Description:
This protein is an alpha+beta fold. Helix content is about 35%, strand content about 20%. Helix 1 (about 5-10) packs across helix 4 (about 75-85).
Amino acid sequence: MPVVSKEEIANARKMDLLSYLRAYEPGELVRFSGETYCTRTHDSLKISNGKWYWFSQNIGGRSALDYLVKVKEMSFPEAVKMLNGQAVQPICYEKPPPAPRKLLLPLLDTNTSKTEAYLKSRGIHPQIIAYCIQHGLLFQSENANDVIFVGYDTKGTRRYAALRSMTTDYKGEATGSDKHFSFALPACMENPAVHLCECAIDVMYYATLCKLGGIVLRRQNRSKRANVVPVALEQFLKDHSQITKVVLHLDNDRVGRQAAESIMGGLDKKYTVLNRPPRAGKDVNDYLRMEIVNRNGKERER
């Protein structure tokens, strides 16, 4: 293990993350909005005003040194040496793609009754829940605390899993999740449009709205937003060359609007991109609840 001096440590801490990425990993740097940036690999890692914070992992820092240790998982001495210009390996952007990460799901429960009841209580149509369970898109953790939304690659291999607690506010990802893939409801491969939502459960909300409106479930591609321009979206479009239209169903808040603008700006030369946020409420869930209340009221009037 290399030994580093106090002077080397102090010098390494001078470099902020934005400067480091511009100099050493420019392909990772993505403008989110204004003077706020994120990384292509981690869309929830935001960089602004000399600081950075990785929201999905609840960790942050000020310097590039913090980033290399906490995010890139380099040893502290190695990171210090690198930032001091010693033993720095040339960055090669033509390197072959890394081997697929091994997705580690939590222990699964064969009984999904709690998950079904939870999703029904959120307004999701029972047929959509049943479809997802039958096709391996939706699971329940063995402790019956978490809903697990799974994403697959084109070969049918599990590559991504989002976890959502049914008892707390916890939301996370399974170890080994590959952000190039995400939870998506299967659709006719000839369909020329893909519909994006903020998260996995929003995809199910939107599918429920489609069903209530008489739209056939398997006539629409639906996926969650995963980056800006999302790596999951880029991978989906790469895997489905028939896509010509991208429809955004992001939240009616500042973050959702900024994300929509970023995606539209990145894709408008290649695709028809439509911004279709919920007609009312903050997100797809709010709008679905309003629609259910409205439909129930009309049925009582009959």
